[in-house]
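subagent[fold] <- orchestrator: predict structure for attached chain, return tokens only, no commentary.
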Amino acid sequence: MMRRDFIKVAVGASAMALCPFIGGAGESQVPVKARQLTLGSQAKVFLAGVSKGAPEQSIKLAVRNAAEAATDFSWLSKGDAVFIKLVNNSGKPYPATTSPTAIAAMVEILKEKGARRLIVGDMSGVQYLRFSPTSLSGSSRALMASSGVATAVQASGAEMHCFEEGGWNAFYEDLPAAGSNWKHGLMMPNILKEVQHIVLMPRCSRHILAGSSLGLKAAVGYWRHDTRLEYHRDAATLQEKTAEGNAVKTLRTKQRLVISAADKLLTTVGPDKGYVFEPDNGLIIASGSVVAHDMVSLAWLLENRRIIPASKRDGFIDESKLVPMIANHIVTSWLGGWGPALASETLTKNSLNTIWDDRVLTHSYEIFGGVPAILLESANSALPEALKNRLGRMTALPA
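subagent[fold] -> orchestrator:
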């Protein structure tokens, strides 16, 4: 059943059945002025402009401009192995997945810089792939073929890696920081032990459960399904666990660059379906900091949600508090059965009017040393100065 269909069925037929069994309440939304947000160190985010309808080579050049502005690649020694973490939750094309054009450009750059082995991978969403110690149904590889990602990876000469194909034991435990909301360690794919570096390539999208799908949310794609079960079952802190999942040792020590193509955005519903908007001036967003990247990426998502046609807004699903609550119980049932689903905590999806409403980011500031002082810099001449300034205002910590 497609995501939109199951949500409508769930709301129409299952709300009364599920609501009496809903567990602990989700965290409420706290106004930004009531929060104790501490300013952290400066973080540069580089923006390359992309004109609407730009040809593939122009997009690749913009990716190169942004990547080479964000890092000098001094971390990459000749012969190193690099894992490129993409987002391929479904078989839907970009922007429901990472841009295949951007992936091809990044592979080309890393080859030039001396990488010996380039591996591109992910594990798709549970609505399309079910994984347990004794069974597997669905295929990330097939979904990558459907989305167009596989063609780009193969044509670029990189390896494609789908985590479930190694089996249940092809994962290791990586521990979050002390005091986190996780009860267990996070099960991460063994392939990450074989590489020296990680480049994260998310997309810019709305998300029916979490609010948005940017860089921090992309960590879910690493996790084995027992970790995903805890994530969805203990839903009162789903947003906080999203941030904490990015603080495991592997990502802290190996992730070098976060870069996303955002010349197209999935502006409503998400993570697979919704209104695809292509602004007149698209962006490539790059930073060494996943938190800084996501602050700008979320600002860009909100800016474009503001200007999409009113007729394209899906208020029933997109803004509902009940829909994500019920949908998360259904996702939990897919992962662990109806017992854990009915006993699971309530997911609260907060409104996103500004970037300061996002609980994933708010918690990431506590984990990663405060709110980054964003310094936006142009990576090419196609970026309008007015757009850069507007995003700068949206990402500046309120007084």
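orchestrator: received. Logging for downstream: The mean pLDDT is 92. Residues 290-307 form the longest helix (18 residues).
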